[in-house]
Design brief:
single chain, alpha/beta, 8-stranded parallel beta barrel, 5-stranded antiparallel sheet, 21 helices, globular
Length: 707
C-alpha cells in the first residue's frame, strides 16, 4: 500500500469500491481523485513529505486534545478517554445532566496507556452507575485547569410502537400536489389538517409526506423538495394565507382572478403561486408590526429566541440573496467578500440597514411553524397511531443557507452523488453539499442533531432518504473527476439517530435503494430502523422473476406500491414510462423494444400474483390477460392495494395517485423541468370531494378488508 492510499484509508476515503449493477463491477480509485478528496478534507498530499506529514497529523489528532469534542456511547457501555501529560493527574471528573445537576457516578479505570515518546498518557474510564439516555456535560479538572466535553448516551434501539396484528395503513402524498376548492393553487397545512380528518374517518393511521423544508425564495420554480436551502425550517409556500391571523378578506378580493387561474391548472404554477402568497404575507406582516405588544408578538419573540442563530442565519441569507440576486450570478459565493458568511465584515451594517426585511423572513417561519403545529393538534385529537411520516433529504443544496452559515462543516469543492452505473460511468453529481466527518465530530455532531430534531417535529415517523449515508456517501470533486466513497463514524451516527428517535418518540425508516454495503441492512435492522419495500422491487431473480407473495414481505418494513420517483400503477401498466424515456432520448430503439417485452411479461406475472392472492374485487373479476390494446383491467388498483395490505409488513402506505388512476409520473429522476414537469403534478380530485369519489371509496374498502 502506498502512503497516499494509507492516508486515504485513515481519513475514511475509499481507495476501491464495488457498484450495485446486475453484473457487479469493482473500481480502483485514481490517485487524482484520492488527492482531491484528501485536500478537500484539509490535508496536503502533493509530495511524499507532505503525505508523511499529513499521516502524522491524523495519527496524532487525538493526542492533541485533552478530551474529544463529544463521546457517543450506548447505554450499556458508557466510556470516555482523557489524554494528559504523564506528570499531571486528574483531580476531579464531573458529569451534569441537562438541568446542570451534578450526577453521583462511579468510575472504573479501564485502561491506562503510556505514550512515553510523547510524554503523554491516555486514560479510559467507564461509568459504572446506571444512567439514563440523554446528553450530559463532562467537566474534567487537571491540576488547576478545567476542560469540557459532552457525553451522549443512546439506547440500543430506536423508538417503536406496538402494532396491531394486521398492521397499520395510511396514505403517502406530496403535500404540494393536493388540489382543493379553497387552497391557493398548491397544497397547504389546512389541506393537511383536512386530510388528517379524512384518514381518521377511513381508519388510516399514518400520512407519508415529501420533505417540507424551505426552498429558494428567489427561484420558486426550483421546486424539488430534496434541494432545500435549510433542513431546519419549513417551506412558507405551505402556509394557508387565509389562516394567518393578520389576513383580511379584502386581501383576497384583489386577487380572485389569479386564484382561479392557479387553482384550475393540471400543474402547479410556482412562479405565480409563490409570489402571490408572498405579496399577501407581506401585508400580513406589516399589520403584525403595527400591533402593540400582544400574546402573538410574545409568541413570535419566544419562537425567535428558541430558534436562535439558525433562524437568524436563514433570514439573513434569504434577505441578502434577494438583494444580491439581481446584481450577481453564482449564488452566495459571488456575493461581496464581506457577506459570504454570517461572520463577514459587512454583516453588522447589512443587518442594521435591512432589519425589517430580515424580520419578515422570520415572521414567515413563525407562521409556518404555528400552522404546522395545528396539524399535530388535529392528529392528537383524532388519535392517529403514527400520524405524520416525514421525509429527511440526504443533503442540502450547495447554494444554501445551511452551507453558507457553516462552511467549515461541508467538504469544499465536492458534492454528494451516486456511484457509477451503465448511464453514468463516473457516477451522478446531485449538487448536494456533504458533511466533513472530521468537522462534524469537531462540532459535537450538533448540526446533524439539529436536523434530526427539526424533521422529527410533529412527526410519528421519519424516513431517512439514502440511509446508507449514515455509513458512507459517494463524493465527486467539482472539477468533474470520478468520485469515491467517504466513510463516517457509523456507530456514532446510529447512536445519535437512536437517541433522538427515542427522545422525540419518532419511528425511523431507512430508504436503502441503491448500492447497499454488505451487512448494512442487518446492522440497521438490529437498531430497529425499519426498511422500505416497494412492490416493483420485491421480486425474485433481481427483478426478473415473479412478485413475492404478501406473506413473504419483511415484517419490519414500511411497504408501498411505488414511490414519487416511480411510475404510478396505471402508467406502469400501459408502459407510458417507457415511452416517456424514449421520447426524452433516455433509451434507444432497442432498449425501448426490450423494455416493452419485459413489461408485457411483468404484467402477466403481476396478474398471476393477484390471482394467487385472491384479491380481485368480486364485482370486477379478471376476464383475460389484457395484452396490449385490450385496455386497463377494471379493479386492478383495488386488487394491488389489497395485495399489499395482505403483506406481513407493519405499515402499508397507499398512494392517492393509484387510487385516482393517475397516469403521469410525479418525478422523473435524471431530468429537470425543461424535460419533465417534476414536482408539479396536482392530484385530479379536489380534497373536499375525495370521500365521495367512487375510486377512493372502493380502494379504501379493499385495504380495510385486510388492515
Amino acid at each position: 500500500m502506498s502512503d497516499l492510499h494509507k492516508l486515504a484509508d485513515m481519513l475514511g476515503i475509499a481507495t476501491h469500491f464495488s457498484d450495485a449493477g446486475m453484473i457487479q463491477k469493482n473500481y480502483c480509485v485514481s490517485e487524482d481523485v484520492l488527492s482531491a478528496m484528501i485536500k478537500s478534507l484539509g490535508f496536503q498530499c502533493d509530495s511524499d513529505d507532505e503525505i508523511k506529514s499529513s499521516i502524522s497529523q491524523v495519527e496524532n489528532r487525538r493526542l492533541s486534545m485533552i478530551l474529544e469534542p463529544i463521546y457517543i456511547c450506548c447505554q450499556d457501555n458508557v466510556v470516555f478517554d482523557i489524554v494528559l501529560p504523564e506528570n499531571e493527574n486528574i483531580s476531579k471528573i464531573t458529569l451534569k445532566d441537562a438541568n446542570r445537576h451534578v450526577l453521583d457516578i462511579r468510575l472504573s479505570e479501564q485502561n491506562k496507556q503510556h505514550l512515553s515518546e510523547k510524554n503523554l498518557q491516555k486514560v479510559t474510564y467507564k461509568i459504572q452507575t446506571p444512567i439514563e439516555i440523554g446528553y450530559y456535560d463532562l467537566d474534567v479538572k487537571i491540576s488547576d485547569k478545567n476542560y469540557k466535553s459532552k457525553i451522549a448516551i443512546a439506547p440500543q434501539k430506536c423508538y417503536d410502537i406496538n402494532y396491531p396484528d394486521k398492521g397499520l395503513w395510511g396514505m403517502a402524498i406530496q403535500l404540494y400536489s393536493i388540489k382543493s376548492h379553497r387552497n391557493w393553487g398548491v397544497g397547504d397545512f389546512t389541506d393537511l389538517i383536512n386530510l388528517v380528518e379524512i384518514c381518521a374517518d377511513c381508519g388510516a393511521d399514518i400520512i407519508g409526506l415529501n420533505p417540507l423544508n424551505v426552498l429558494c425564495h428567489d427561484f420558486p420554480e426550483n421546486a424539488s423538495p430534496y434541494q432545500s436551502i435549510s433542513r431546519l425550517f419549513l417551506n412558507p409556500i405551505y402556509i394557508d394565507i387565509e389562516n394567518v391571523p393578520e389576513y383580511e378578506l379584502s386581501d383576497k378580493q384583489m386577487i380572485e382572478g389569479i386564484l382561479a387561474e392557479v387553482r384550475s391548472g393540471e400543474y402547479i404554477q410556482y412562479n405565480k403561486v409563490y409570489p402571490l402568497k408572498i405579496k399577501i404575507l407581506e401585508k400580513c406582516y406589516n399589520r403584525f408590526r403595527e400591533q402593540k405588544l400582544s400574546s402573538r408578538k410574545e409568541e413570535y419573540n419566544s419562537f425567535c429566541r428558541e430558534r436562535g442563530a439558525d433562524l437568524d442565519n436563514l433570514a439573513l441569507f434569504q434577505c441578502i440573496y434577494e438583494s444580491e440576486n439581481s446584481k450577481v450570478w453564482g449564488g452566495w459565493r459571488a456575493w461581496p467578500q464581506g457577506l459570504r458568511s454570517p461572520q463577514g465584515a459587512e454583516i453588522p451594517d447589512y443587518i442594521e440597514q435591512h432589519q425589517e426585511r430580515i424580520e419578515f423572513f422570520k415572521f414567515m417561519q413563525f407562521e409556518a411553524s404555528r400552522q404546522f403545529d395545528e396539524v399535530k393538534k388535529k392528529i392528537d385529537e383524532k388519535g392517529l397511531k403514527i400520524g405524520l411520516y416525514r421525509d429527511l433529504a440526504v443533503g442540502v443544496g450547495k447554494d444554501s443557507a445551511e452551507y453558507w452559515g457553516n462552511t467549515k462543516l461541508f467538504i469544499p469543492h465536492c458534492g454528494a452523488g451516486a456511484p457509477p452505473d451503465a448511464f453514468f460511468p463516473c457516477g451522478q453529481q446531485w449538487g448536494l453539499g456533504a458533511f466533513s466527518p472530521l468537522e462534524l465530530k469537531e462540532q459535537g455532531y450538533e448540526p446533524f442533531i439539529k436536523i434530526l430534531r427539526s424533521n422529527m417535529k410533529n412527526a410519528g415517523a421519519l424516513r431517512m432518504d439514502h440511509v446508507m449515508s449514515l455509513m458512507r456517501l459517494f463524493i465527486i470533486p467539482d472539477k468533474g473527476e470520478c468520485g469515491t466513497y467517504l466513510y463516517y463514524n457509523f456507530q456514532d451516527m446510529l447512536n445519535i439517530v437512536a437517541l433522538e428517535s427515542t427522545l422525540n418518540k419518532c419511528i425511523i425508516v431507512g430508504e436503502s435503494i441503491g448500492n447497499v454495503p454488505e451487512g448494512f441492512i442487518d446492522t440497521i435492522s438490529n437498531r430497529d430502523i425499519h426498511s422500505l419495500s416497494v412492490l416493483w422491487s420485491e421480486r425474485s431473480h433481481a427483478g426478473w422473476g415473479g412478485f413475492y407473495a404478501p406473506q413473504d414481505y419483511p415484517k419490519d418494513a414500511f411497504v408501498s406500491i411505488g414511490t414519487h420517483d416511480m411510475a404510478p400503477l396505471k402508467m406502469w401498466w400501459f408502459g407510458y414510462d417507457i415511452e416517456l424515456a424514449y421520447t426524452l432520448e433516455m433509451i434507444d430503439d432497442n432498449s425501448k423494444k426490450e423494455a416493452y417485452h419485459k413489461r408485457e411479461t411483468d404484467r402477466g406475472l403481476l396478474l398471476s400474483s393477484l390471482d394467487a392472492a385472491d384479491v380481485w374485487p368480486k364485482d370486477k373479476p379478471r376476464h383475460n390477460n389484457y395484452i396490449y390494446g385490450e385496455g386497463y383491467p377494471e379493479g386492478i388498483e383495488e386488487a394491488v392495494n389489497r395485495y399489499m395490505s395482505k403483506s406481513s409488513s407493519k405499515v402499508f402506505l397507499a398512494q392517492l395517485e393509484d387510487f385516482l388512476h393517475v397516469s403521469k409520473q410525479q418525478n422523473l429522476p435524471g431530468t429537470d423541468r425543461d424535460k419533465h414537469p417534476n414536482w408539479r403534478l396536482k392530484l385530479p380530485v379536489n380534497l373536499e370531494d375525495l370521500k365521495n369519489d367512487c375510486a377512493f371509496i372502493r380502494n379504501v374498502s379493499a385495504i380495510r378488508k385486510e388492515r
